[in-house]
Amino acid sequence: MLTFIDPAGLLFAGALVGVVMVGALIVVRPVAADAGSAVNIWIAAQLAGIAADIIALLQPGIILPESWSSIPENVATLLFPSLIVAAASLQATSLRMLLSERGAGPSDFLPTVVLTSAYALIAQGLPSADRQPIMLPFTLGCLIWTSTIVWRLRQRHRRGAGLIVVAMFLVMVLAAIDAVLTMNAPALPASDTRLPPAFGLIVNLTVPLAMSLGFIVTLFERLHHKVVQMSNTDLLTGALNRRGFMREFDAALPRAQQRSAAVSLALIDIDRFKSINDSLGHSAGDDVLVFVSQKILAGIRADDRLGRWGGEEFVLLMPDTSLQQAARVVDRLREQISAAPVRDGFPIVTFSAGVAAVPAAVLHLIDPLVAEADALLYQAKVTRNCVVMSAIEGKLARTDASA
Asked: Domain check: are 106 and 154 in the same one?
């Protein structure tokens, strides 16, 4: 048998949880400066929820005597659900921005304006008692929308996204149970606003807490991803540094071995780079490095990996790519880079490359592949602005046999 408690404590506790979460987000916001817009919108959603709890608390019979009238009933019954709808919509917008890792634009707030305005327009023409029930489809719509966003963009934020999805699933299930119980419950006096304690605790405390904790966990997952990305990336060119490239190679090799595919690798060296530095300055040399890396990154597949191997030398890993395919890709990149100057007043930039390929099944370390590509690059540097290729399967097979 269910027992009932007064909702004032639950509403107060819900507002308190909201205040604590706002404080926590303000504290962590400087750590996640690049996600500042998403954090600010989530704080706005929390403040909307706190305002809704305060409006409900100030209604006669909750914490104030029945004879007192702080906010007109017709205003409160319109404002409270509108704030709840706005909070749910703002949370969806914030999560979409956080998980997609982009800034805020005016269009991001359109769903909140549309949903809240639609609810207000519909509810305005209804009696006060009928306004809150129509909040349910609007709020559930926001939750389903948020769940879809989180599930679609969950790849790099699994823990935080999982916590958020579980919290929203709880809200939707409990809202459905509450709707069924309400429809089948005997009529209660109008003054009886008591709620089942378990339901109230979950809706007012557990779910908002889980949602905000999930958001904070997602923030730190994003921060961790950024730190790892920075530690593996060459800051000047945007290509992988040597450490990052080796990590990507170690991850790509087992996948290629499972598919019995070939692995191709190219070492690329910018021709006459020292003379560019000497005649135009190191800043011009940096511009050339950025130009070449951007051209290569724009011309390769999503599974290919470009690293800065050292100085003016780049390394390009092409999994599941035969020697001939890899050589054609590198030669196409060579033609694209030499087709136009970096900018006006610059000489045409060219590069030389050595391309080596081997079946992944006979490859255990990157060293033989790099060594072969380096020897081929040495040959290409004799004439410059060309690509030299070779398969090294036979050499690796002889090395394994002699070992």
From this structure: yes
